[in-house]
Amino acid sequence: MLETGTAETATEHVTPQRDTVGVVESQSVQFGEIARLVANRARSLGLSIPIFKSPPRIVGVSRTVRKRDDGRSVVAVSFRNRPLGAVISDLVEGVLVVNELSGASACRVRDDLWEPFGEAVRAAA
Predict the structure, then answer these.
(1) What is the DSSP letter of 22?
(2) Are 57 and 64 in contact (CB under 8 A)?
(3) Structure pTM?
(4) What is the 3-class SS of 51-107, one letter each residue?
(5) Are 121 and 84 in contact (CB under 8 A)?
(6) What's the structural domain count of the chain?
(7) Exposed site from 49, 82, 94, 102, fewest CB < 10 Å?
(8) Contact 77, 52 (CB under 8 A)
(9) Distance, CA of 65 to CA of 75 (rounded, Å)
């Protein structure tokens, strides 16, 4: 039986610290986190948010954008064996395409969509 309200129970961990060292996130989890960051930023800017998925249906392409019958857009991006900056760039560009942005407004929105990723990732792209 567990005791409640003791200092010991408040600091215990389900997984011992040594068992979490070196754990690598799956690629699908990483893709989901990146797509969520782009979608949240796009939402905060009042943009239409596409459905993000990976990989594209067409073999050998890095990114596809299509419209579904229900009017929603789908941006599919290849994630495997690609630099992180390239994946983020494809997601960001997909949002620009879906929202039909170009010129100066596309430049401003592109910069805003990159904001959650910081300077280090931006420089790599």
Answers:
(1) T
(2) yes
(3) 0.75
(4) EEECCCCCCCCCEEEEECCCCCEEEEECCCCCCHHHHHHHHHHHHHHHCCCCHHHHH
(5) yes
(6) 1
(7) 102
(8) yes
(9) 5
Given a cut of 90, whether residue 2 has pLDDT beyond it is no
Assess if residue 109 is contained within a domain: yes
Domain membership of residue 9 (yes or no) is: no
pLDDT at site 6: 47
Q: What's the domain range around 70?
A: 25-124
Mean pLDDT of 72-77: 97
| pLDDT at position 118 | 83
Would 20 be classed as within a structural domain? Answer: no
Lookup: tokens for 125: 């792209």
User: Could you tell me which residue, 124 or 58, shows the higher pLDDT?
Assistant: 58
Mean residue pLDDT across the chain:
84
> Which among 101, 115, 97, 103 is positioned nearest to 52, based on CA atoms?
97
The tokens describing 99, both together, are 């929202």
- Model confidence at 14: pLDDT above 90: no
